[in-house]
Argininosuccinate lyase
Amino acid sequence: MWGGRFAAQPSDIMQSINASIDIDRRMAVQDIAGSRAHADMLAECAIITEEDNEAIQAGLDQVLEEVKSGAFPYRVELEDIHMNVEARLKEIIGEPAGRLHTARSRNDQVVTDFRLWTRGALTEAQSGLLELQKTLISRAGEHTDTVMPGFTHLQTAQPVTLGHHLLAYVEMAERDRGRMRDAAVRLNESPLGAAALAGTGFPVDRDMTAEALGFDRPMANSLDAVSARDFALEALAALSIAATHLSRLAEELVLWTSAQFGFATLSDAWSTGSSIMPQKRNPDAAELIRAKAALIAGQFASLQGAVKALPLAYAKDLQDDKRLTFEAFDTFGLCVKAMAGMIDTVAFNKDRMRDAAAKGFSTATDLADYLVRELKMPFRDAHHVTGRIVAMAESEGKDLSELPLQSMQTVEPRLTEDVFSVLSVEASAASRQSYGGTSPVRVSEQVQSWKTRLGLE
Ligand code: ARG
């Protein structure tokens, strides 16, 4: 394709380091779409003839067929998908194929393909998240009043409901989808027609190709068009944040399914055994999600590193953007599906969760709040009095609700039997009815509101 200036072939190692076809063949469909739009525009602007365009379009039909059927002969010596498609077109239609690359460079071509690919991948990643949200909402609906310990510092804090906990991840996934939607909006400008870096002397119509490819407009600066990769960085950042959320949930599944927590059991389909320890049910998928979130974060960091000191405009460093981005989207797609599968089928152990919620003096805040409400104590005093009662319960080896009234009265004589009404974990959770709070009434409302928002039922 560029052999005119050269007398000898590139060395084998040069070919190995330079060829990207094993990666960018995944953009074959986008490359053909870009070429179609470009050729139509060239004909419309009388830069090539209608006959040439017809031959090019018919030839590209066949190339697309071959790509789809798996018959397309990818050749590593042709470097990348762009040269492979053009060379195949030449084999099929002959001379008119050589006119396709008028007013175009691989620099605007590759990033046009890549933007189209990333746009599709962002849509798919959002669908994956939406499916996970549906699963979480359905499980949350089953557990609006299942009480479990809420933690801070992984120390028992206050009782919460499992439904509330699961819906927290629905909120995160919603913001993740929003980030991907936003990234797709900014991404959606067409670099095609920027040519190598400076634009072209041919009378092209960049609005026409932008529209044909579903872009909102052509990019306004040709140097920016061929060099910018912030669309990919933004997609990877959104992906990495979403994967971070999956990883936090994965970590909780690892903890919850341990014998020590015993809050949950993964279904057989999502557990693995040990080759030596017959009792094992390991949460491998959750652990892998935890690790893969780090890989995606690394892919973001790698691309940022590749771009951050790159002078304008195109440099071959940018070829590795696709490997990183494709891998990150593949990994994310797998993780989000695995998470939905685990959540859909995990069995929650309500008794264990309730028992754990009752440990660690989880209703101490309720006692302090009670002293404020009933005895009109300032909260700081109530905190101190409750602390003394907790210390007493601890030294007697009892939970707060098991401590006799007489013992509590040695600390605060005005306490009556009524105090026990706030010391149960159910009462504690039920009392937190502030907007966004953990009480079953609020959680049921939230489940309903999510179902409406996402058009479920
Ligand atoms: N395979 C190249 C890439 O992915 C296409 C652009 C090559 N442009 C160039 N001037 N060598 O970046």
In short: The two ends are 57 Å apart (CA to CA). The chain has 18 helices and six strands. The first helix runs from residue 12 to 18.
